[in-house]
TrEMBL record:
It comes from the Eukaryota. It catalyses: UTP + L-glutamine + ATP + H2O = CTP + L-glutamate + ADP + phosphate + 2 H(+). Its EC number is 6.3.4.2. It holds the Pfam family GATase. Keywords: ATP-binding, Glutamine amidotransferase, Ligase, Nucleotide-binding, Pyrimidine biosynthesis. SUPFAM superfamilies: Class I glutamine amidotransferase-like, P-loop containing nucleoside triphosphate hydrolases. The keyword Nucleotide-binding applies. One of its GO terms (molecular function) is identical protein binding. It comes from Prototheca wickerhamii. Catalyzes the ATP-dependent amination of UTP to CTP with either L-glutamine or ammonia as the source of nitrogen. Residues 2-272 form the CTP synthase N-terminal domain. Pathway: Pyrimidine metabolism; CTP biosynthesis via de novo pathway; CTP from UDP: step 2/2. This is CTP synthase.
Protein backbone atom coordinates (compact mmCIF):
# COMPACT_ATOMS: atom_id res chain seq x y z
CA UNK A 1 0.00 0.00 0.00
CA UNK A 2 1.22 3.46 -0.89
CA UNK A 3 0.07 6.76 0.58
CA UNK A 4 -0.25 10.32 -0.66
CA UNK A 5 -0.74 12.92 2.02
CA UNK A 6 -2.39 16.16 0.96
CA UNK A 7 -1.78 19.06 3.34
CA UNK A 8 -2.77 22.71 3.15
CA UNK A 9 -1.04 25.94 3.98
CA UNK A 10 -1.67 29.68 4.32
CA UNK A 11 -5.49 29.60 4.61
CA UNK A 12 -8.21 26.98 4.60
CA UNK A 13 -10.76 26.66 1.84
CA UNK A 14 -8.22 26.47 -0.98
CA UNK A 15 -9.83 23.43 -2.55
CA UNK A 16 -7.61 20.87 -0.90
CA UNK A 17 -10.36 18.29 -1.25
CA UNK A 18 -10.69 18.91 -4.97
CA UNK A 19 -6.92 18.73 -5.37
CA UNK A 20 -6.74 15.49 -3.42
CA UNK A 21 -9.59 13.86 -5.33
CA UNK A 22 -8.15 15.11 -8.63
CA UNK A 23 -4.86 13.40 -7.82
CA UNK A 24 -6.92 10.29 -7.17
CA UNK A 25 -8.53 10.70 -10.60
CA UNK A 26 -5.08 10.97 -12.20
CA UNK A 27 -3.93 7.79 -10.52
CA UNK A 28 -7.11 6.01 -11.52
CA UNK A 29 -6.48 7.14 -15.07
CA UNK A 30 -3.09 5.40 -14.77
CA UNK A 31 -4.88 2.18 -13.88
CA UNK A 32 -4.12 2.38 -10.16
CA UNK A 33 -6.82 1.43 -7.61
CA UNK A 34 -7.38 4.30 -5.20
CA UNK A 35 -9.03 4.86 -1.85
CA UNK A 36 -9.12 7.91 0.37
CA UNK A 37 -9.23 9.06 3.95
CA UNK A 38 -10.23 12.49 5.16
CA UNK A 39 -8.79 13.64 8.47
CA UNK A 40 -10.72 16.37 10.26
CA UNK A 41 -9.04 17.72 13.35
CA UNK A 42 -12.37 18.27 15.12
CA UNK A 43 -13.56 16.77 18.37
CA UNK A 44 -16.95 15.85 16.92
CA UNK A 45 -17.43 12.14 16.41
CA UNK A 46 -19.67 12.40 13.38
CA UNK A 47 -21.30 15.11 11.31
CA UNK A 48 -24.86 14.10 12.17
CA UNK A 49 -25.34 16.64 14.91
CA UNK A 50 -23.79 19.54 13.04
CA UNK A 51 -25.98 22.27 11.65
CA UNK A 52 -26.18 22.27 7.86
CA UNK A 53 -26.18 26.06 8.06
CA UNK A 54 -22.79 26.12 9.67
CA UNK A 55 -21.35 23.09 8.05
CA UNK A 56 -22.86 22.65 4.62
CA UNK A 57 -24.54 19.46 3.56
CA UNK A 58 -24.53 16.25 5.56
CA UNK A 59 -23.47 13.54 3.14
CA UNK A 60 -24.76 10.04 3.94
CA UNK A 61 -22.64 6.96 3.22
CA UNK A 62 -23.81 3.42 2.49
CA UNK A 63 -23.14 2.30 6.05
CA UNK A 64 -25.17 5.19 7.44
CA UNK A 65 -22.10 7.24 8.30
CA UNK A 66 -22.80 10.96 8.21
CA UNK A 67 -19.98 12.83 6.57
CA UNK A 68 -19.49 16.22 4.98
CA UNK A 69 -19.21 17.20 1.36
CA UNK A 70 -15.55 16.19 1.12
CA UNK A 71 -16.33 12.49 1.25
CA UNK A 72 -19.05 13.17 -1.31
CA UNK A 73 -16.42 14.69 -3.53
CA UNK A 74 -14.23 11.61 -3.25
CA UNK A 75 -17.11 9.27 -3.94
CA UNK A 76 -18.15 11.21 -7.03
CA UNK A 77 -14.70 11.87 -8.47
CA UNK A 78 -13.35 8.39 -7.82
CA UNK A 79 -16.62 6.45 -8.07
CA UNK A 80 -16.11 4.79 -4.69
CA UNK A 81 -18.36 3.79 -1.81
CA UNK A 82 -16.63 4.86 1.37
CA UNK A 83 -17.53 4.11 4.97
CA UNK A 84 -17.69 6.18 8.12
CA UNK A 85 -14.17 5.00 8.98
CA UNK A 86 -12.81 6.89 5.98
CA UNK A 87 -13.44 10.02 7.99
CA UNK A 88 -10.98 10.20 10.84
CA UNK A 89 -11.48 12.89 13.48
CA UNK A 90 -9.71 13.84 16.67
CA UNK A 91 -12.89 12.84 18.50
CA UNK A 92 -12.87 9.34 17.02
CA UNK A 93 -9.20 8.77 17.83
CA UNK A 94 -9.52 9.97 21.41
CA UNK A 95 -12.71 8.00 21.89
CA UNK A 96 -11.04 4.80 20.83
CA UNK A 97 -7.90 5.39 22.91
CA UNK A 98 -9.97 6.27 25.98
CA UNK A 99 -12.12 3.16 25.53
CA UNK A 100 -8.98 1.02 25.41
CA UNK A 101 -7.59 2.74 28.45
CA UNK A 102 -10.84 1.95 30.31
CA UNK A 103 -10.59 -1.68 29.23
CA UNK A 104 -7.11 -1.82 30.65
CA UNK A 105 -5.46 -2.48 27.29
CA UNK A 106 -2.51 -0.27 28.20
CA UNK A 107 -1.69 -2.35 31.30
CA UNK A 108 -1.81 0.60 33.65
CA UNK A 109 0.81 2.63 31.77
CA UNK A 110 0.53 6.39 31.42
CA UNK A 111 -1.48 7.06 28.25
CA UNK A 112 -0.14 9.97 26.20
CA UNK A 113 -0.60 11.78 22.90
CA UNK A 114 2.77 10.42 21.77
CA UNK A 115 2.86 7.45 21.36
CA UNK A 116 -0.70 6.29 22.11
CA UNK A 117 -2.74 8.78 20.10
CA UNK A 118 -0.20 8.90 17.26
CA UNK A 119 -0.05 5.09 17.08
CA UNK A 120 -3.82 4.87 17.06
CA UNK A 121 -3.90 7.30 14.12
CA UNK A 122 -1.37 5.24 12.15
CA UNK A 123 -3.15 1.96 12.88
CA UNK A 124 -6.46 3.51 11.82
CA UNK A 125 -5.03 4.75 8.53
CA UNK A 126 -3.47 1.37 7.72
CA UNK A 127 -6.63 -0.51 8.61
CA UNK A 128 -8.98 1.71 6.62
CA UNK A 129 -6.67 1.91 3.59
CA UNK A 130 -6.79 -1.89 3.32
CA UNK A 131 -10.51 -2.04 2.53
CA UNK A 132 -11.91 -2.51 -0.96
CA UNK A 133 -14.11 0.46 -1.85
CA UNK A 134 -14.63 0.33 -5.62
CA UNK A 135 -16.98 -2.63 -5.75
CA UNK A 136 -14.37 -4.86 -7.40
CA UNK A 137 -13.47 -6.66 -4.20
CA UNK A 138 -9.82 -5.86 -4.87
CA UNK A 139 -7.70 -3.93 -2.42
CA UNK A 140 -6.66 -0.38 -3.29
CA UNK A 141 -3.04 0.28 -4.20
CA UNK A 142 -2.82 3.93 -3.21
CA UNK A 143 -4.57 5.78 -0.40
CA UNK A 144 -4.98 9.55 -0.68
CA UNK A 145 -5.08 11.11 2.79
CA UNK A 146 -6.38 14.63 3.07
CA UNK A 147 -5.43 16.41 6.26
CA UNK A 148 -7.97 19.12 7.11
CA UNK A 149 -6.98 22.55 8.35
CA UNK A 150 -3.64 24.18 7.69
CA UNK A 151 -0.25 22.88 8.84
CA UNK A 152 0.89 24.54 12.01
CA UNK A 153 -2.62 24.59 13.57
CA UNK A 154 -2.68 23.36 17.15
CA UNK A 155 -5.55 21.04 16.28
CA UNK A 156 -3.74 19.11 13.60
CA UNK A 157 -0.46 18.60 15.47
CA UNK A 158 -1.07 15.01 16.65
CA UNK A 159 -1.98 14.05 13.08
CA UNK A 160 1.07 15.74 11.59
CA UNK A 161 3.31 13.98 14.08
CA UNK A 162 1.59 10.64 13.42
CA UNK A 163 2.04 11.08 9.68
CA UNK A 164 5.68 12.09 10.13
CA UNK A 165 6.25 8.77 11.87
CA UNK A 166 4.06 6.99 9.36
CA UNK A 167 6.39 7.76 6.46
CA UNK A 168 9.02 5.62 8.17
CA UNK A 169 6.54 2.90 9.08
CA UNK A 170 5.58 2.41 5.43
CA UNK A 171 9.08 3.01 4.10
CA UNK A 172 10.64 5.10 1.35
CA UNK A 173 8.88 4.99 -1.99
CA UNK A 174 5.52 4.36 -0.33
CA UNK A 175 4.70 7.83 0.90
CA UNK A 176 4.67 11.29 -0.58
CA UNK A 177 3.29 14.70 0.33
CA UNK A 178 1.37 17.15 -1.82
CA UNK A 179 1.10 20.60 -0.28
CA UNK A 180 -1.70 22.93 -1.39
CA UNK A 181 -0.92 26.58 -0.94
CA UNK A 182 -1.98 30.02 -2.03
CA UNK A 183 -0.20 32.49 -4.29
CA UNK A 184 -2.10 35.74 -3.81
CA UNK A 185 -2.03 38.56 -6.31
CA UNK A 186 -1.28 41.94 -4.79
CA UNK A 187 -1.01 45.51 -5.98
CA UNK A 188 -2.04 47.45 -9.06
CA UNK A 189 0.30 45.52 -11.35
CA UNK A 190 -1.07 42.22 -10.11
CA UNK A 191 2.13 40.70 -8.75
CA UNK A 192 1.96 37.04 -7.67
CA UNK A 193 3.37 36.78 -4.17
CA UNK A 194 5.34 33.71 -3.13
CA UNK A 195 6.06 34.58 0.50
CA UNK A 196 3.02 32.88 2.11
CA UNK A 197 3.85 29.65 0.30
CA UNK A 198 7.51 29.86 1.30
CA UNK A 199 6.49 30.19 4.94
CA UNK A 200 4.00 27.36 4.88
CA UNK A 201 6.48 25.01 3.20
CA UNK A 202 9.07 25.96 5.81
CA UNK A 203 6.56 25.08 8.55
CA UNK A 204 5.78 21.77 6.86
CA UNK A 205 9.46 20.87 6.60
CA UNK A 206 10.11 21.85 10.22
CA UNK A 207 7.47 19.29 11.19
CA UNK A 208 9.34 16.60 9.28
CA UNK A 209 7.25 16.40 6.11
CA UNK A 210 8.81 17.21 2.73
CA UNK A 211 6.54 17.98 -0.19
CA UNK A 212 6.92 16.20 -3.53
CA UNK A 213 4.47 18.59 -5.13
CA UNK A 214 3.43 22.15 -4.40
CA UNK A 215 -0.04 22.85 -5.73
CA UNK A 216 -0.38 26.62 -5.84
CA UNK A 217 -3.84 28.10 -5.99
CA UNK A 218 -4.04 31.41 -7.82
CA UNK A 219 -6.57 33.15 -10.01
CA UNK A 220 -4.23 33.14 -13.04
CA UNK A 221 -1.55 30.62 -14.10
CA UNK A 222 1.77 31.15 -12.33
CA UNK A 223 4.39 33.03 -14.32
CA UNK A 224 7.62 31.17 -15.11
CA UNK A 225 9.68 33.43 -12.89
CA UNK A 226 7.26 32.90 -10.01
CA UNK A 227 7.47 29.17 -10.46
CA UNK A 228 11.27 29.26 -10.45
CA UNK A 229 11.34 31.48 -7.43
CA UNK A 230 9.03 29.11 -5.56
CA UNK A 231 11.16 26.17 -6.59
CA UNK A 232 14.39 27.69 -5.35
CA UNK A 233 13.01 29.09 -2.10
CA UNK A 234 11.00 26.00 -1.28
CA UNK A 235 13.79 23.61 -2.23
CA UNK A 236 11.99 21.67 -4.98
CA UNK A 237 12.47 21.33 -8.74
CA UNK A 238 10.38 23.67 -10.96
CA UNK A 239 8.32 20.75 -12.28
CA UNK A 240 7.27 20.03 -8.71
CA UNK A 241 5.52 23.40 -8.60
CA UNK A 242 2.01 23.15 -10.01
CA UNK A 243 -0.21 26.01 -10.89
CA UNK A 244 -3.83 25.53 -9.90
CA UNK A 245 -5.59 28.47 -11.42
CA UNK A 246 -9.32 29.02 -11.80
CA UNK A 247 -10.90 26.86 -14.52
CA UNK A 248 -14.30 26.77 -16.22
CA UNK A 249 -15.51 23.65 -14.43
CA UNK A 250 -14.37 21.40 -11.62
CA UNK A 251 -13.70 18.46 -13.97
CA UNK A 252 -10.88 20.44 -15.56
CA UNK A 253 -8.78 20.22 -12.41
CA UNK A 254 -7.42 16.69 -13.05
CA UNK A 255 -6.70 17.70 -16.66
CA UNK A 256 -4.84 20.77 -15.48
CA UNK A 257 -2.74 18.61 -13.17
CA UNK A 258 -2.05 16.09 -15.89
CA UNK A 259 -0.95 18.80 -18.31
CA UNK A 260 1.73 19.76 -15.78
CA UNK A 261 2.89 16.20 -15.33
CA UNK A 262 1.63 15.85 -11.76
CA UNK A 263 0.94 12.16 -12.33
CA UNK A 264 4.55 11.58 -13.38
CA UNK A 265 5.93 13.33 -10.32
CA UNK A 266 3.61 11.50 -7.94
CA UNK A 267 4.12 8.13 -9.60
CA UNK A 268 7.87 8.47 -9.55
CA UNK A 269 7.82 9.45 -5.87
CA UNK A 270 5.85 6.25 -5.25
CA UNK A 271 7.84 3.98 -7.57
CA UNK A 272 4.94 3.62 -10.00
CA UNK A 273 6.71 4.94 -13.12
CA UNK A 274 5.20 2.27 -15.35
CA UNK A 275 1.71 3.34 -14.35
CA UNK A 276 2.35 6.99 -15.21
CA UNK A 277 2.93 6.04 -18.83
CA UNK A 278 -0.58 4.59 -19.02
CA UNK A 279 -2.38 7.81 -18.04
CA UNK A 280 -5.56 8.10 -20.08
CA UNK A 281 -7.97 10.91 -19.29
CA UNK A 282 -9.71 10.88 -22.65
CA UNK A 283 -13.13 9.94 -21.30
CA UNK A 284 -12.85 12.44 -18.49
CA UNK A 285 -11.97 15.18 -20.96
CA UNK A 286 -14.55 14.51 -23.64
CA UNK A 287 -17.31 13.12 -21.44
CA UNK A 288 -17.14 15.70 -18.66
CA UNK A 289 -14.82 18.71 -18.88
CA UNK A 290 -15.25 19.62 -22.55
CA UNK A 291 -18.80 18.40 -22.75
CA UNK A 292 -20.01 20.47 -19.84
CA UNK A 293 -18.67 23.65 -21.40
CA UNK A 294 -20.20 22.78 -24.78
CA UNK A 295 -23.78 22.17 -23.61
CA UNK A 296 -26.08 24.72 -25.24
CA UNK A 297 -29.79 23.92 -25.00
CA UNK A 298 -30.89 25.13 -21.59
CA UNK A 299 -33.14 23.40 -19.11
CA UNK A 300 -34.46 25.49 -16.28
CA UNK A 301 -34.89 23.80 -12.91
CA UNK A 302 -36.36 25.52 -9.88
CA UNK A 303 -34.73 24.36 -6.66
CA UNK A 304 -37.22 25.24 -3.95
CA UNK A 305 -35.69 25.32 -0.51
CA UNK A 306 -34.96 27.13 2.65
CA UNK A 307 -31.23 27.19 3.02
CA UNK A 308 -30.99 28.54 -0.44
CA UNK A 309 -28.59 31.25 0.54
CA UNK A 310 -26.26 28.41 1.34
CA UNK A 311 -25.67 26.43 -1.83
CA UNK A 312 -23.36 24.07 0.01
CA UNK A 313 -26.31 22.57 1.83
CA UNK A 314 -27.56 21.25 -1.49
CA UNK A 315 -24.22 20.47 -3.08
CA UNK A 316 -24.94 16.83 -3.88
CA UNK A 317 -28.32 17.76 -5.33
CA UNK A 318 -26.69 20.32 -7.59
CA UNK A 319 -24.03 17.83 -8.62
CA UNK A 320 -26.63 15.18 -9.37
CA UNK A 321 -28.47 17.70 -11.57
CA UNK A 322 -25.22 18.39 -13.40
CA UNK A 323 -24.62 14.68 -13.98
CA UNK A 324 -28.13 14.31 -15.34
CA UNK A 325 -27.67 17.31 -17.62
CA UNK A 326 -24.47 15.80 -19.00
CA UNK A 327 -26.35 12.59 -19.77
CA UNK A 328 -29.33 14.42 -21.28
CA UNK A 329 -27.31 17.03 -23.19
CA UNK A 330 -28.80 20.04 -21.53
CA UNK A 331 -27.24 23.13 -20.04
CA UNK A 332 -28.38 23.50 -16.46
CA UNK A 333 -30.06 26.74 -15.47
CA UNK A 334 -30.68 26.51 -11.79
CA UNK A 335 -33.32 28.85 -10.40
CA UNK A 336 -33.02 29.18 -6.66
CA UNK A 337 -36.44 29.78 -5.17
CA UNK A 338 -36.73 30.74 -1.52
CA UNK A 339 -39.77 28.77 -0.42
CA UNK A 340 -40.89 31.29 2.18
CA UNK A 341 -41.26 33.91 -0.53
CA UNK A 342 -43.90 31.85 -2.31
CA UNK A 343 -46.34 32.51 0.50
CA UNK A 344 -48.25 35.77 0.14
CA UNK A 345 -46.68 38.54 2.23
CA UNK A 346 -48.55 39.21 5.42
CA UNK A 347 -49.67 35.59 5.81
CA UNK A 348 -48.47 33.84 8.95
CA UNK A 349 -45.00 34.90 10.05
CA UNK A 350 -43.95 35.97 6.56
CA UNK A 351 -41.75 39.07 6.57
CA UNK A 352 -40.77 39.39 2.91
CA UNK A 353 -41.90 42.05 0.47
CA UNK A 354 -44.39 41.92 -2.36
CA UNK A 355 -41.49 42.17 -4.84
CA UNK A 356 -39.73 39.16 -3.39
CA UNK A 357 -43.00 37.28 -3.54
CA UNK A 358 -43.51 38.18 -7.20
CA UNK A 359 -39.91 37.30 -8.07
CA UNK A 360 -40.16 33.88 -6.44
CA UNK A 361 -43.31 33.08 -8.37
CA UNK A 362 -41.84 34.34 -11.63
CA UNK A 363 -38.84 32.05 -11.14
CA UNK A 364 -41.05 29.10 -10.30
CA UNK A 365 -43.40 29.70 -13.24
CA UNK A 366 -40.58 29.99 -15.72
CA UNK A 367 -39.07 26.67 -14.68
CA UNK A 368 -39.24 23.55 -16.85
CA UNK A 369 -38.99 21.38 -13.77
CA UNK A 370 -39.35 21.72 -10.01
CA UNK A 371 -37.15 20.08 -7.42
CA UNK A 372 -37.93 20.13 -3.71
CA UNK A 373 -34.93 18.68 -1.89
CA UNK A 374 -34.62 17.37 1.65
CA UNK A 375 -34.67 19.77 4.56
CA UNK A 376 -36.33 20.43 7.82
CA UNK A 377 -39.94 21.33 8.35
CA UNK A 378 -41.37 24.43 9.94
CA UNK A 379 -40.82 27.77 8.24
CA UNK A 380 -40.90 27.55 4.50
CA UNK A 381 -42.92 24.35 4.22
CA UNK A 382 -46.14 26.08 3.19
CA UNK A 383 -44.21 27.63 0.29
CA UNK A 384 -42.90 24.24 -0.75
CA UNK A 385 -46.45 22.92 -0.69
CA UNK A 386 -47.47 25.73 -3.05
CA UNK A 387 -44.61 24.76 -5.37
CA UNK A 388 -45.70 21.12 -5.39
CA UNK A 389 -49.25 22.20 -6.17
CA UNK A 390 -48.07 24.41 -9.01
CA UNK A 391 -46.19 21.44 -10.50
CA UNK A 392 -49.01 18.94 -10.01
CA UNK A 393 -51.77 21.11 -11.41
CA UNK A 394 -49.69 22.65 -14.18
CA UNK A 395 -48.24 19.39 -15.47
CA UNK A 396 -44.73 20.63 -14.65
CA UNK A 397 -42.20 17.85 -13.96
CA UNK A 398 -41.66 17.52 -10.22
CA UNK A 399 -39.15 15.62 -8.21
CA UNK A 400 -39.28 15.58 -4.41
CA UNK A 401 -36.58 14.23 -2.14
CA UNK A 402 -37.23 13.18 1.46
CA UNK A 403 -39.11 16.21 2.83
CA UNK A 404 -39.97 16.88 -0.83
CA UNK A 405 -41.90 13.60 -0.87
CA UNK A 406 -43.70 14.43 2.36
CA UNK A 407 -44.59 17.82 0.90
CA UNK A 408 -46.09 16.14 -2.16
CA UNK A 409 -48.19 13.91 0.08
CA UNK A 410 -49.43 16.76 2.27
CA UNK A 411 -50.32 18.80 -0.80
CA UNK A 412 -52.17 15.88 -2.35
CA UNK A 413 -54.06 15.15 0.86
CA UNK A 414 -55.15 18.76 1.16
CA UNK A 415 -56.03 19.53 -2.45
CA UNK A 416 -57.21 16.19 -3.81
CA UNK A 417 -58.50 14.27 -0.80
CA UNK A 418 -59.96 17.47 0.65
CA UNK A 419 -58.25 17.03 4.03
CA UNK A 420 -57.67 20.75 4.58
CA UNK A 421 -55.85 20.27 7.87
CA UNK A 422 -53.43 17.60 6.57
CA UNK A 423 -49.97 18.22 7.97
CA UNK A 424 -46.88 16.54 9.33
CA UNK A 425 -46.54 15.85 13.01
CA UNK A 426 -43.01 17.20 12.66
CA UNK A 427 -44.32 20.73 12.83
CA UNK A 428 -48.00 20.31 13.70
CA UNK A 429 -48.46 17.74 16.44
CA UNK A 430 -52.20 18.42 16.65
CA UNK A 431 -53.02 17.99 12.97
CA UNK A 432 -56.43 16.33 12.43
CA UNK A 433 -54.94 14.45 9.48
CA UNK A 434 -51.33 13.58 10.23
CA UNK A 435 -50.33 12.23 6.82
CA UNK A 436 -46.65 12.38 7.77
CA UNK A 437 -45.65 10.90 11.13
CA UNK A 438 -42.62 10.16 13.26
CA UNK A 439 -41.28 6.67 12.71
CA UNK A 440 -42.21 4.75 15.83
CA UNK A 441 -39.23 2.39 16.18
CA UNK A 442 -36.66 5.03 15.35
CA UNK A 443 -36.72 6.44 18.85
CA UNK A 444 -33.63 4.41 19.81
CA UNK A 445 -30.90 6.94 20.30
CA UNK A 446 -28.19 6.73 17.74
CA UNK A 447 -25.02 8.72 18.20
CA UNK A 448 -25.88 12.16 17.03
CA UNK A 449 -29.64 11.78 16.91
CA UNK A 450 -32.47 9.48 15.92
CA UNK A 451 -32.53 8.69 12.24
CA UNK A 452 -33.11 5.94 9.74
CA UNK A 453 -29.78 6.09 8.01
CA UNK A 454 -27.81 4.51 5.21
CA UNK A 455 -28.36 2.22 2.24
CA UNK A 456 -31.62 0.23 2.18
CA UNK A 457 -33.46 -1.93 -0.31
CA UNK A 458 -36.56 -0.44 -1.87
CA UNK A 459 -38.94 -3.04 -3.30
CA UNK A 460 -40.91 -2.09 -6.39
CA UNK A 461 -44.61 -2.91 -6.34
CA UNK A 462 -44.75 -3.15 -10.12
CA UNK A 463 -42.38 -2.99 -13.05
CA UNK A 464 -44.96 -0.87 -14.88
CA UNK A 465 -43.83 2.45 -13.45
CA UNK A 466 -41.42 5.22 -14.36
CA UNK A 467 -39.17 4.26 -11.47
CA UNK A 468 -38.62 0.71 -12.73
CA UNK A 469 -37.95 1.97 -16.24
CA UNK A 470 -35.54 4.68 -15.16
CA UNK A 471 -33.64 2.33 -12.89
CA UNK A 472 -33.88 -0.50 -15.40
CA UNK A 473 -34.92 -2.62 -12.44
CA UNK A 474 -37.82 -5.00 -12.06
CA UNK A 475 -37.98 -5.75 -8.39
CA UNK A 476 -35.80 -3.60 -6.24
CA UNK A 477 -33.40 -0.73 -6.05
CA UNK A 478 -31.01 0.38 -3.35
CA UNK A 479 -30.58 3.95 -2.14
CA UNK A 480 -29.43 5.88 0.90
CA UNK A 481 -31.84 7.19 3.53
CA UNK A 482 -31.68 9.86 6.20
CA UNK A 483 -35.00 10.59 7.83
CA UNK A 484 -37.07 10.60 11.00
CA UNK A 485 -40.55 11.10 9.59
CA UNK A 486 -42.44 8.99 7.10
CA UNK A 487 -45.72 8.78 5.20
CA UNK A 488 -48.53 7.62 7.49
CA UNK A 489 -49.54 4.21 6.08
CA UNK A 490 -53.13 4.74 7.21
CA UNK A 491 -53.70 7.23 4.40
CA UNK A 492 -51.99 5.25 1.66
CA UNK A 493 -55.05 3.38 0.40
CA UNK A 494 -57.08 6.55 -0.03
CA UNK A 495 -54.28 8.31 -1.86
CA UNK A 496 -53.67 5.37 -4.16
CA UNK A 497 -57.37 5.29 -5.02
CA UNK A 498 -57.09 8.96 -5.97
CA UNK A 499 -54.10 8.42 -8.26
CA UNK A 500 -50.99 8.74 -6.10
CA UNK A 501 -49.19 5.41 -6.44
CA UNK A 502 -46.68 4.27 -3.86
CA UNK A 503 -44.57 2.15 -6.16
CA UNK A 504 -41.55 1.62 -3.92
CA UNK A 505 -41.72 0.35 -0.33
CA UNK A 506 -39.60 -1.40 2.26
CA UNK A 507 -39.83 -5.16 3.01
CA UNK A 508 -42.83 -4.69 5.29
CA UNK A 509 -44.81 -2.84 2.64
CA UNK A 510 -45.85 -0.27 5.22
CA UNK A 511 -43.00 2.18 4.78
CA UNK A 512 -43.27 4.24 1.60
CA UNK A 513 -40.13 4.78 -0.46
CA UNK A 514 -41.23 6.15 -3.84
CA UNK A 515 -44.41 7.78 -5.12
CA UNK A 516 -45.59 8.51 -8.64
CA UNK A 517 -48.63 10.46 -9.74
CA UNK A 518 -50.80 8.98 -12.48
CA UNK A 519 -51.59 11.06 -15.56
CA UNK A 520 -48.79 13.53 -15.09
CA UNK A 521 -45.68 13.93 -17.29
CA UNK A 522 -43.37 13.35 -14.32
CA UNK A 523 -44.41 13.70 -10.73
CA UNK A 524 -42.11 11.51 -8.67
CA UNK A 525 -40.82 11.69 -5.14
CA UNK A 526 -38.57 9.54 -3.00
CA UNK A 527 -38.11 9.22 0.72
CA UNK A 528 -34.43 8.41 0.15
CA UNK A 529 -31.66 10.64 -1.16
CA UNK A 530 -30.64 9.49 -4.63
CA UNK A 531 -28.27 12.45 -4.97
CA UNK A 532 -25.70 10.68 -2.78
CA UNK A 533 -25.20 7.90 -5.31
CA UNK A 534 -25.10 10.03 -8.44
CA UNK A 535 -21.78 9.93 -10.31
CA UNK A 536 -20.53 11.97 -13.27
CA UNK A 537 -20.76 8.98 -15.60
CA UNK A 538 -23.72 7.35 -13.82
CA UNK A 539 -26.37 9.99 -13.42
CA UNK A 540 -28.91 9.15 -10.75
CA UNK A 541 -32.01 7.76 -12.54
CA UNK A 542 -34.50 10.14 -10.91
CA UNK A 543 -32.43 13.21 -11.64
CA UNK A 544 -32.06 12.02 -15.20
CA UNK A 545 -35.81 11.48 -15.29
CA UNK A 546 -36.47 15.02 -14.11
CA UNK A 547 -34.11 16.58 -16.65
CA UNK A 548 -35.41 14.43 -19.48
CA UNK A 549 -39.02 15.25 -18.57
CA UNK A 550 -38.23 18.94 -18.20
CA UNK A 551 -36.66 18.97 -21.64
CA UNK A 552 -39.34 16.90 -23.34
CA UNK A 553 -37.11 13.86 -23.84
CA UNK A 554 -38.47 11.45 -21.26
CA UNK A 555 -40.92 9.47 -23.34
CA UNK A 556 -38.46 8.95 -26.13
CA UNK A 557 -35.89 7.86 -23.62
CA UNK A 558 -38.23 5.46 -21.84
CA UNK A 559 -39.51 3.92 -25.03
CA UNK A 560 -35.83 3.20 -25.65
CA UNK A 561 -36.33 3.27 -29.39
CA UNK A 562 -34.75 6.47 -30.55
CA UNK A 563 -32.32 8.93 -29.14
CA UNK A 564 -33.61 12.29 -27.93
CA UNK A 565 -33.96 14.97 -30.54
CA UNK A 566 -31.95 18.01 -29.72
CA UNK A 567 -33.88 21.21 -30.16
CA UNK A 568 -32.39 23.80 -32.54
CA UNK A 569 -29.17 25.07 -31.07
CA UNK A 570 -26.74 27.76 -32.02
CA UNK A 571 -23.99 25.49 -33.20
CA UNK A 572 -21.53 25.64 -36.06
CA UNK A 573 -22.65 23.37 -38.88
CA UNK A 574 -19.42 21.37 -38.84
CA UNK A 575 -20.02 20.42 -35.24
CA UNK A 576 -23.47 19.06 -35.93
CA UNK A 577 -22.47 15.54 -36.94
CA UNK A 578 -20.05 15.18 -34.07
CA UNK A 579 -22.66 16.53 -31.72
CA UNK A 580 -25.27 14.10 -32.97
CA UNK A 581 -22.88 11.23 -32.49
CA UNK A 582 -22.06 12.43 -29.01
CA UNK A 583 -25.75 12.67 -28.25
CA UNK A 584 -26.46 9.10 -29.34
CA UNK A 585 -23.46 7.90 -27.42
CA UNK A 586 -24.60 9.61 -24.27
CA UNK A 587 -28.04 8.20 -24.23
CA UNK A 588 -26.83 4.69 -24.94
CA UNK A 589 -24.22 5.19 -22.28
CA UNK A 590 -26.92 6.43 -19.95
CA UNK A 591 -28.83 3.23 -20.42
CA UNK A 592 -25.75 1.12 -20.03
CA UNK A 593 -24.78 2.99 -16.92
CA UNK A 594 -28.17 2.42 -15.42
CA UNK A 595 -27.89 -1.26 -16.17
CA UNK A 596 -24.40 -1.45 -14.70
CA UNK A 597 -25.49 0.44 -11.63
CA UNK A 598 -28.32 -1.98 -11.14
CA UNK A 599 -26.06 -5.03 -11.32
CA UNK A 600 -23.76 -3.72 -8.63
C1 LIG B 1 -15.83 13.88 9.68
O1 LIG B 1 -16.45 13.99 10.93
C2 LIG B 1 -16.31 15.27 11.53
C3 LIG B 1 -16.86 15.22 12.92
O2 LIG B 1 -18.22 15.08 12.92
C4 LIG B 1 -17.00 16.31 10.69
O3 LIG B 1 -16.88 17.57 11.26
C5 LIG B 1 -16.38 16.29 9.33
O4 LIG B 1 -17.08 17.19 8.52
C6 LIG B 1 -16.39 14.91 8.74
N1 LIG B 1 -15.61 14.94 7.54
C7 LIG B 1 -15.98 14.36 6.43
C8 LIG B 1 -15.06 14.43 5.29
O5 LIG B 1 -17.01 13.77 6.35
C1 LIG C 1 -49.47 22.97 9.26
O1 LIG C 1 -48.60 23.28 10.34
C2 LIG C 1 -47.98 24.55 10.25
C3 LIG C 1 -47.02 24.68 11.42
O2 LIG C 1 -47.70 24.52 12.64
C4 LIG C 1 -49.00 25.66 10.25
O3 LIG C 1 -48.36 26.89 10.08
C5 LIG C 1 -49.95 25.43 9.10
O4 LIG C 1 -50.96 26.40 9.13
C6 LIG C 1 -50.56 24.04 9.18
N1 LIG C 1 -51.37 23.86 8.01
C7 LIG C 1 -52.63 23.45 8.04
C8 LIG C 1 -53.35 23.38 6.75
O5 LIG C 1 -53.13 23.12 9.07
Amino acid sequence: MKYILVTGGVVSGLGKGVTASSIGVLLKACGVRVTSIKIDPYLNVDAGTMSPLEHGEVFVLDDGGEADLDLGNYERFLDLSLSRDNNLTTGKVYQSVIERERRGDYLGKTVQVVPHITNEIQDWIERVAHVSVDGSGQLPEVCVIELGGTVGDIESMPFVEALRQFQFRVGAGNFCVVHVSLVPVIGAVGEQKTKPTQHSVATLRSLGLNPSLLACRSSEPLGDSVREKLASFCHVRPEQVLTMHDVSNIWRVPLMLEAQGAHKTVCSALGLEAAAARADLHRWRTGLADKWDALVTPVRIALVGKYVELMDAYLSVTKALQHACLAANRRLQLEIVESEHLVAPGEGEATHSQDEHAAAWAALRSADGVLVPGGFGGRGTEGKILAARHAREGGVPYFGICLGMQIAVIEFARSVLGLAGANSTEWDAASPDPVVVFMPEISVTHKGGTMRLGARRVLLETSDCVTAKLYQAEREIQERYRHRYEINPEYVERMEAAGLRFVGRDETGARMGVLELRDHPFYVAAQFHPEFKSRPFKASPFFLGLILAASGQLNTFLSGRATPVSSPVKRRATDAAAHKQQLDGTIHAAFQNLAVQEKQ
